[in-house]
Structures are given as C-alpha cells and as structure tokens.
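Handout, section 3.2

Students often ask what a structure token actually looks like in practice. Rather than define it abstractly, here is a full record for Cation/multidrug efflux pump. The first block is the sequence as you would receive it.
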Amino acid sequence: MFALARLAIVGFIILTIIYVCVSLYSRGVRRDKLEAEWAENDMVGDGEAWVEEGLKDYDDSLRRKLILGVYILPVLAVSAIIYVVNFM
C-alpha cells in the first residue's frame, strides 16, 4: 500500500513538472507567433497589449486544455498495465 502511495506522489510531482514545462513552452511559442504576426503585418499601436490580448485568447483555447492530457494519459496507461498484469 505504501508503494502505491509513493508511486502516486512521485508520479504526481513528475507529471506536474512536465505539465509546467509543456505549458510554458506552448505559451512561449504562441507569444513568438503573435509577435511575428505583429511585425509581419506592420500593425500600428501598442504591440505588447495586442500580444497580451492574444495570449488571453490562448488561455481560453482548446490547446491549453489539451495539455492537461499530461496528467490523464500516463494514469490511464499505468492503470491499464496494472489491470492487464493482474487480471488477464
């Protein structure tokens, strides 16, 4: 029982680190794309405000929510492996 608890705690910590890294990377890529679009189209006005508005839209997007799969997929895989090894 303690081994399962230890696996769950360590797994949660590792998945949280992976989630934060993927989330920051994805947000950085989106920021770079918005800045490139701003420069490419020669827009007039406050570019930083425009990029921040684009990032707010990104925060509500489906892509942002799909990153939560970092938590779901490994848990499902480990559960399936445990089921197959023990009950099949």
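Discussion prompt for tutorial groups: Helices lie at 2-40, 47-59, 62-66, 69-87. How would you have guessed this from the sequence alone?
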